[in-house]
Amino acid sequence: MQCVVLAGGLGTRLGQLTKDTPKALIPVAGRPFADHQLQQLHGWGVDDVIYSIGFGGDQIREFVGDGSRWGLSVRYADEGDQLRGTAGALVHAQQNGLLADTFALIYGDSYLQLDAAAVFDSQRRSDFDATMTVYRNDGRWDTSNTRVAGNRVELYEKGHADPLAAGMQYIDYGFSVLDRDAVLALIPRRGAADLADVYHQLSRAGRLGAFEVSERFYEIGSHSGLAELDQLLNEKEGNG
Q1: Total structural domains in the chain?
Q2: pTM of the entire structure?
Q3: What is the CATH number of the domain that holds 136?
């Protein structure tokens, strides 16, 4: 299983913590976050990782290397200081010949609890162009952005004026499995592009599957999220 890790962002919400350090390397429970995430990916059965990097990319390369210490093969798609957005990053990776026919996608600041192999299997058995993991959020952890009908995302839309009134009880959990050619056909070859727009198009076309997960998500993109995950992992690992 291949997984693309989107880790090129600036992490501006974290202020001084990311002034000189990329989010992926912020200490969480005594270790750089990337250490936790790569260990988790290996545990899921992922063996091939594509790191999409930009800000602080050299630091990530130095720490992660070829991924062998986690039992992974890691390669890099480096955007430098010309960031192309979450969808543009996939085009850049493909232009470097890195993407498999079917691949997973995760954000470099997300800590998730799921069965990745089951999501891959769901996508491969479906006729969808992509499968998005979704969590019944009801506006609790962040703004809900997804309306689900059975095994399909009926509507994905960020920034909706009244998401609950629109039936958006779910939120994008942060892990998707994509068919490369179908998804890249929707992304401009040049310039910046956002995956939110791609997911919106897929949902409106009936081409986006839904895979519901039951465990809440964690992230280190905010100070509150970082504190919550630090507490969770310290408890899991028995730190004092």
Answers
A1: 1
A2: 0.92
A3: 3.90.550.10
